Amino acid sequence: MFPTTIAGSLPKPAWLAEPDKLWPQWRLAGDDLATGKLDATLLALKLQEDAGIDVVSDGEQSRQHFVHGFLEFVDGIDFAHKVEMGIRNDRYKAMVPTVTGALKLKGRVHGAEARFARAHTSRKLKITMPGPMTIIDTIADRHYGDRVKMAFAFADLLNAEARALEKDGVDVIQFDEPAFNVYMAEVGAWGIEALHRAIDGLQCTTAVHICYGYGIKANVDWKATLGNEWRQYEEIFPALAASRLSQVSVECINSKVPLPLLSLLNGKDVQIGVIDVATDEIETPEEVAATIEAAMKYVPKERIVCGTNCGMAPMHRDIAAAKLDALGKGATLARKRLA
User: Fold this and answer.
1) How much is the pLDDT for 213?
2) Could you say which architecture CATH assigns to the domain 30-338?
3) How many alpha carbons lie under 13 Å from residue 288 in its C-beta half-sphere?
4) Between helices 30-50 and 317-338, what is the axis angle to 10°?
5) Is the pLDDT of residue 148 over 70?
6) Is the pTM value of this prediction over 0.90?
7) DSSP code of 96?
8) Where are the alpha helices (H) located in the chain, listed in sequence order?
9) CA atoms within 13 A on the CB side of 78
């Protein structure tokens, strides 16, 4: 009951990349970088196992950014001439690469870290990838001329990598779609169907992570404008409940998302965020257990998965480690209370 996991990312060691940054620069190169990424993956696995996390992740240690870590393995994208573009409906600006031709995978994307992680843990393994809508919201287009057409082209690439990851022994494949709470009408119009294309043929657990973003200033400032109740998910939860995805991941602790909305995900496993990534304050096991117990009013206990509100890539490593420990202990406490 209450299996634990993380949204995906963990901070990278300072010897691998710049600390405390969402878009860090690598501090190694060539073969040293390739080896360092796997070394960091092993550390991420150990950190999660020591905290009692049930479904572990590679911690996204091999990626500079959760979206561009996929795009780097795609032909038809120009990284040499980046352009400035508004991200998440102009919430903030970023320098992004441009699609200049037909999209095609260069080869495996996350095969090295997935196989390495599978060989070094006996626990269930989750690998995350960006969802089609979030990808096209984080890249410029000079080829397709149609957002939906480009999204489905990316969905085909994601599906190819997802099928390979399943063969590598990955138990959970999660697609990160923070854009789902920005372009609400498009979620039902084509966003979920693009995810269906991405999960086609998979037998493993499939998940979608939606959220109000990392704990960076642009997101914190944006959330301050959303009022006392964040009801955006009310529009998309019924569609997600009717989807072919196994699991939906959403923030919960310190969120202004009304908990009754979780009942709209009827029939799905729900990964509730019980760890706040927008603050350095460490949750107590009692706070984590209380969040789980509050969610149980709207989600059957056997369908609750406990996780983080979002990725922890930009956080201090010691803070992230302490939060992982609180996640493991809080879920254990919640189990004991129900025993």
Assistant:
1) 67
2) Alpha-Beta Barrel (3.20)
3) 31
4) 30
5) yes
6) yes
7) E
8) 30-50, 68-71, 111-119, 132-136, 147-167, 184-186, 192-199, 217-223, 237-241, 285-295, 317-338
9) 12
